[in-house]
Amino acid sequence: MTKARGSLTASLASALVGAALKLFADDVDTPVIALGKIGVVLLIVGIAEVLYGLYRLTREAGEAREARKP
C-alpha cells in the first residue's frame, strides 16, 4: 500500500468516527469534554486529510505516468 493510500484510509476512519460521535454522542454529558464538539473537530480534520490524501494519490499517479514516458 502506498503512503497516500494509507493516509487516505486513516483519514477516512477519522472522519467516520467524528461523524459517529456527532450523531450518536452529541447529547452525552461528560465532565471535561463535549463529545459532539470533539466529533465535529474529528470530522473536519478527517475531511481535510481525505482531500489531501486524494491530492497526493493523484500526484503520485501523475509522477508514475511521467516516469513511464520515453
What order do the SSEs take from the amino end to the carboxyl end, as H and E?
Answer: HH
Cα(first) to Cα(last) distance is 26 Å
Instruction: Please identify the structural class as seen in this structure.
Output: mainly alpha
- Overall 3D shape: rod-shaped
Average residue pLDDT: 87
Uncertain segments are: none
* Helix content class: over 70%
**Individual helix count:** 2
Task: Kindly provide the radius of gyration, computed on alpha-carbon positions and rounded to a whole number of angstroms.
Answer: 17 Å
* Biggest β-sheet description: none
Q: Tally the beta strands.
A: 0
Q: What share of residues are in beta strands?
A: under 5%
List keywords for this structure.
single chain, 70 residues, 2 helices
Structure description:
It contains 2 helices and no strands. Helix 1 packs antiparallel against helix 2. The longest helix is centred in the C-terminal third of the chain and has 34 residues, at 35-68. The model has no long low-confidence stretch (mean pLDDT 87). The protein is rod-shaped and about 60 Å long. With 70 residues, the protein is an all-alpha fold.
Write a brief caption for the model:
The chain is 80% helix and 0% strand. By secondary structure, it is mostly helical.
